[in-house]
Design brief:
Elements (H helix, E strand, L loop, with lengths): L21 H12 L3 H12 L2 H28 L5 H10 L1 H30 L12 H19 L2 H28 L3 H5 L5 H6 L8 H14 L6 H4 L8 H23 L7 H6 L4 H10 L1 H35 L17 H17 L6 H29 L6 H47 L10 H20 L6
Length: about 500
């Protein structure tokens, strides 16, 4: 049931705000997710699979994420006193698991911003050739300027930034829908079915052979999950919603729209170009496919939309990252300084730390052979930890009969949890190991927060072995990187 529209009460003495409405929350879900990934889907998906396997992978992924969105929506209604996926993990499994979820979520968001920065310079490279190709020092300098400009904007007020985000969402959807409409008009069924399962490509062999259908499906998972990062945005900012019920509606409606957009944008091009042709177009692929379809103006049109899209998603991710750290500070999972708000109601320290980490990883990306793919894959592996823990909490609630519609809630949340865990284990175990490295300094912050509260026992019960496993896996990952077994 909808709650009355009242101004939200800002903590720590910050001025009261009216809160974010339903349209703003839907915009946050869509804009946070539609960043750079959709503009590169054609090449990324075609590199992994032929059209038949891609459709199966999208079916699994689409059902998985609609189940996850429904789970988030039901959680927001079943536990309106909890705000976001970090709180769900904390309530369900204790403070240390809450920290694991929150730290993983924060990692994923700022790493995702680095992926956006890399793709932004690539998009600008369409107009400014020195930025084209691999990441360069001038490109990193440009990324740095954009990073701190967005940090400054969000530091001036989260809800004001969400208004900008809604406007950006409308602007960037226009070129995407223009691309989808054009691909639909030019769709050729004979081209689409020419090598539907990749059998011909496998018979020819070579580095572009997609492999078995099962391998193709697995190879799709990381890129498909990447384009949904941000769909939890309404849940993370649930405490700033004008009406709590809007969080559920926004998450389900926004995610359903995303499934339609992503499937159309990645599958329809198989009916315009062959898989080999899709593999050979430039990056980002949507720019060059549309240019081939309508002429040179089309490339500029899509590239301009991509720039706007990335800026909007970068803004959304910066909001979400700072809110994640602020929430952990409020929950005493990080030192309380992270939850302190400035006079605009923004968590300045959280923003500064987030901006600094983006800056450092941007420099590291200069030494990566595939900076964009590495960044988005690491981002996806990190956030799967948080998604899985949140959906596992719903499994726990439903199993105890503490939610309405127990049977459907249990089935959907269990499917979402199993899908996420299995998909990331099949497609990105090495990336999960790399994430464990980042948990080592995070544990130092967690210990500091617990001591700040005067806790006699920092870790209790199963938390101790879990912490030991995280640290051990982190050092194992460092060793594997040093030996060259895991590459960046």
């Amino acid at each position: 049931m909808s709650q009355p529209t009242t101004p939200t009460e800002a903590p720590n003495g910050a001025p009261a705000k009216r809160g974010i409405g339903l349209i703003g929350l839907i915009a946050l879900v869509i804009s946070s997710s539609i960043g750079s990934g959709v503009f590169a889907l054609s090449t990324d998906i075609s590199a992994a699979a032929a059209p038949g396997a891609a459709i199966i992978a999208w079916l699994l992924t689409g059902v998985g994420f609609i189940a996850l969105a429904t789970t988030f929506g039901r959680l927001s209604l079943a536990r309106p006193d909890l705000n976001g996926i970090v709180a769900y993990a904390d309530e369900g499994f204790g403070p240390f698991v809450g920290f694991v979820s929150g730290w993983g979520y924060w990692l994923s968001i700022w790493i995702g911003n680095v992926a956006f920065g890399v793709m932004l310079t690539t998009a600008i490279g369409y107009f400014y050739p020195p930025f084209a190709g691999s990441l360069t020092v001038p490109a990193v300098i440009f990324m740095s300027v954009m990073n701190w400009a967005i940090v400054a904007l969000v530091n001036h007020g989260v809800e004001e930034a969400s208004v900008v985000n809604a406007i950006v969402m409308c602007c960037k959807l226009i070129p995407i829908f223009a691309f989808i409409a054009t691909m639909l008009l030019l769709f050729n069924f004979d081209v689409f079915t020419a090598d539907f399962w990749g059998t011909l490509a496998n018979n020819i062999g070579g580095p572009d052979a997609p492999g078995s259908v099962g391998d193709q499906i697995i190879n799709c998972f990381m890129v498909m999950m990447w384009v949904f990062v941000g769909m939890e945005g309404a849940s993370v900012l649930g405490h700033r919603a004008r009406r709590k019920a809007d969080v559920s509606r926004a998450t389900i409606l926004g995610t359903s729209a995303l499934v339609f957009i992503y499937v159309a944008a990645s599958v329809l091009p198989y009916g315009y170009m062959t898989r080999d042709e899709l593999l050979s177009v430039g990056s980002p692929s949507m720019v060059y496919i549309f240019q081939d379809a309508v002429g040179s103006w089309g490339g500029a049109f899509i590239a301009g939309g991509l720039v706007i899209s990335i800026l909007g998603a970068w803004l959304s991710y910066t909001i979400l990252a700072s809110e994640a750290m602020r929430t952990m500070g409020d929950m005493q999972l990080l030192p309380r300084g992270f939850s302190k708000l400035n006079r605009h109601g923004a968590p300045t320290l959280s923003l500064m730390v987030t901006g600094t980490m983006i800056q450092l990883l941007s420099i590291v990306m200069l030494f990566s052979e595939a900076a964009y793919q590495f960044a988005y894959s690491l981002c996806t592996a990190s956030i799967v930890i948080s998604w899985s823990l949140a959906s596992a909490y719903m499994v726990k609630l439903a199993a105890k009969g503490e939610v309405e519609g127990r049977g459907s809630a249990l089935a959907l949340s269990l499917f979402a949890t199993v899908f996420l865990v299995v998909a990331v284990l099949l497609a990105g175990v090495d990336l999960l190991l790399l994430c464990c490295i980042a948990y080592i300094p995070g544990l130092v912050c967690y210990v500091a927060a617990r001591r700040e509260q005067g806790c006699d026992h920092i870790l209790e019960g199963f938390e101790k072995p879990l912490a030991v496993v995280l640290v051990a896996l982190g050092f194992l990952a460092i060793a594997l990187v040093a030996m060259g077994i895991i590459t960046i």
